[in-house]
Design a protein that fits this description.
Length: 390
Amino acid sequence: MNVFKKTIARLSFLGSFKESGKDIVFIIVSCLLTVLVFIIPTGFEESGIQSNSVRCKARIVQVDNEYLTTIGPVRYGHQKLEIQVLSGRFKGKVFSTTNNLVGKMEMDKAFVEGENALVVLTLADDENVSMIRVMDHYRTDKTIILVVLYIILTIIIMGWMGLKILVTFVFSAVMLIKVLYPLALHGFDPIIGALIITTVISAVILFLVGGLSRRALTAFLGTASGIIFTAVLSFAFTYWFKIHGAVRPFAEMLLYSGYGHLNLAHLFIAGIFIAASGAMMDLSMDTAAAMDEIKKQQPAITRLQLMKSGYTVARQAAGTMSTTLLLAYSAEYTAMIMTFIAQGIPLENIINMVWVSSEIVHTLVGCFGLTLVAPLTVFAGGMLIKNHCA
């Protein structure tokens, strides 16, 4: 363990790698849990893979745009492509295919010579290809580079905390993709599943970042309480506003893909408090850390004074965090809002549209939950931190 710690420490120029033994053990356990969850099969691994198809990387070596029509920013028709396979058992072979464009920029992919693409080869038998489909531009290598750069920069700047951040980042993604979403597809209620998963994710993140301490426990209690309150509010306002849930990309497509049992409204509700949980963790940890530091600097402070000081910090943090939620959520619908403005649609018409109403509920309920986290965390801190320096 000491060798591991020294090795990591050599990678950091700005960060501190001083951690207690129990925190290192918790990090290792979290990593092992992440690996375990990642390797557990979900039952959907082969659902989108045909036995007679092969995915591979290919280069576009020739493009014929003769049958492509351009009207303004939109193109429709088809491209004739010559592709050279760069990976897999057909590496080096050249094939001809077509790339159809239907005139929708969000769906169409146009290629030029020299670009790489992800290609699916449908096989007639082991040696012959019957059909070729060019899926999209190949971005796997770019994604790997971006991830590696993020890892390196995070560890260099944040030190030991950077390693914790990476562990929590991967753990959260794995829990959502490998546990929550498959459970929902199998028929488990998304609200119950999201409550359990976000609580587990919050616990791991807060105890990794804050250590196994009363400070972290305070933050966790505030976050967990806020998530529960937000879930209740999400449920109430979603049904009050009569939001059916099919307001997200691909939501309705799930129903037509063999998952008609899904309750899209519950999926929408779960998304509200999942999205808000990150901001809740930030606010609760900031508040708990401030209260802990105040207690260390002023050991004689009374419980009421500590809670008042914590609440002052929480109010300041909640003010900026609520705006953060607004900006983050509204940015997703910039084009929609601009379209409404450009067409001069009356404000009353806009706020009664289901897409806009869903975003109002999403944003304001998340802010409600965030506001509730402040007093909940302050109360937990007053009970836990007052008689103990975390």
